[in-house]
Structures are given as structure tokens and as C-alpha cells.
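Schema walk-through. Below, the input block comes first and the output block second. Nothing else is stored per chain. Lengths vary across the set, and this one has 358 residues.
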Amino acid sequence: MFMMPLHPPNRQPWQTYMEDREAILLADQLGYCEALVGEHVTDLAENITSCMMFLASVAHQTKNIVLGTGTINLPNSHPAAIAAQVAMLDHMLRGRFIMGISPGGLMSDAEVFGNYRKDRNAIFLESINMVLDIWAKDAPYELEGAFFRVSTANTMIPEIGQGTIIKPFQKPHPPIIVTAVAPHSKGVTEAAKRGWTPVSANFLLPEWVASHWPRYQEGCRAVQKEPLSSDWRVAKSIFVADDENTAIRYGHGAEGPYHFYFKQLLRKLVGGGRSNLFKLDQNEPDASINADTMTPRLVIAGTVNSVVDQILAFREKVGPFGTLYYPCHDWVDPVLGKRSMQLMAEEVLPRVNAALSG
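--- output ---
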């Protein structure tokens, strides 16, 4: 499961937090293997302001599901805070944790933290390098870059533990994943060189998802590592229903949460100059990109048999990814939202896996 999450901005945060927690707990009960949660600070629709705080709220109620940050937006915080908080959460979960990282894509977040129009990729790289150095080295650290400085040299009292940041439960650190959004993403190649693995975003055209696997292979081979398709995660918006009419009405229609999701997302991405993500022909006018046209193209919706066929066709088109992420959208109808998750776990995926292994 992957959740941004994205809810109508007129809903109260306490209500959506309860819904998002319920979705994670249900996923754990149904046997979903992983759950990633996103974060944004300046967005009433995407109102989880700290994915690590949210994950801590379900850490001791979940049993088997691996929880992950999807993602920590590194330029928005200090590397020492990130290193300490990730290590704490990794211990709380006893290693049942994945660290997703990114430069952050919400421009209002960049502005509020003073990073708008700055090189956020450079800030991102310096931040993650410092986080990894904090975990690899002993205090007092003495790390200094263009954007951050980390030291406890003047105040360290080693005999009582003062001045040292805890190291993660997993050694040397939790698995690191990065989101892949851009077509033919060079970031995927660079991530692979560092041993990080990609998650292809759920709102991409299949042709752009397919462009990520060659980039991952390229990065792995550059460091003499065998690229494993099992390391590639792909998210895809999916709605499963007991009847086809409900599936299309709720999964593609204006009354369902998927149409709202793309209406909201397209306003941000197309308005932010990312209309290329939704076009195969870049000469296509931006006006043709809207929730009515894109929701049916980007959401798999149907009954169990139909969804199985659509997932297999999708995988045939994009490449041999190893993990499918089911995005958790707003529960406009909680009964339908939970039923879709149940059908996905109990009916769809067993048939998909049987078809792939057969």
C-alpha cells in the first residue's frame, strides 16, 4: 500500500488521520507486505505533516506489515533531526521499516522552508550524505557542507552519553527507496549506483513507468551489481468491486475518490510545469489533460477477473516489477474502499501471482 494521502481539504484532519490509520491496520490484517506514507506541511488535502509521526502512531498496533516513509522530504529538515528520528522509528519497529527519501515536490513546502528556487537536489544529496555519515561515524561528527553543519564537539560528554545520536536498529541503516516520477529518470540510475531502490509513481503513463527499469539496470551494472526486478516497486491506482457498474462509477466517475485525486493532482503538476508526465506527444495541448480524460487512463477499475487481466497487461507493458503498490485513496464510501482492499488481497493478487508463476 502507498498513501500520499490525499483527502478533500474540507475534511477535518482528525477524521482523515483516523481513516488513514484504519487503512494501515486493515492492510496489516489482510497481509499487505508494505505500507508507505507521504508527508507535506503546507497542504490541506495532503495533511499528514510528518510521515514518521504518523507511522509511530501505528507502530505498536501493526504486527507484520513493513512501514515506510513515502517520503521524507529531506530539504525541509535538518540532517541530525532526520537521522535521530529515523533511528528511533527503526528501533520502535525493530527493523520493520523502510526509509523513503526525496527532495520534495510541493512548491509551497519549498517556499515555506526557504528553498523555493534553490537547488533542492543539491540540498537533498548533502542531507542524505550527512545522515549516512552520522550513522556510520562516532560523535562528535564534525560534518560541514554548503547547507548544513553537524557537530557536538563543544558539548559532548561521552561518559554519560551526551552528544551522540542513536544509530538505527538495522545495520548499517534501513533500506533506502526513492520515488521515480520523471520519464527516463536519471535519478533512478544514480540511486541504483548507491544501492537504493525505486518506486515508480502511480500517476504515470505506463510508457513512462516502463522507462524506469532500463535506468535501474544501467545504475546497477555501473557498480557491478546484478539488477533484480524484485527490487523494483511500482504503484498503480486500483479499484476492485463486486460488479462492473460499481467499479466504473466509483473508480472512474466524478463521484469517486480517484477522479477527485487526479483533479487535485493535475492542478498541482500541470500548473507546476509537469504536464509532460501526462503526454506521450509533448505537442498535445495542456487543456486536454484533465480528470475526465486521465482518470480512466490511469486507474485500473473492475471486478476481480477484470482487474487481474488489467494488472497482468500493465506488467507486460511496463516490465517485470516485483512489488505492486496499491494506493490508498480517500474513502468516499468506506464500505467500497475496504471491500476493494479485501478483494485485492484475497482474490486479485493470488490470481496474478499464480498467472506469473505459471
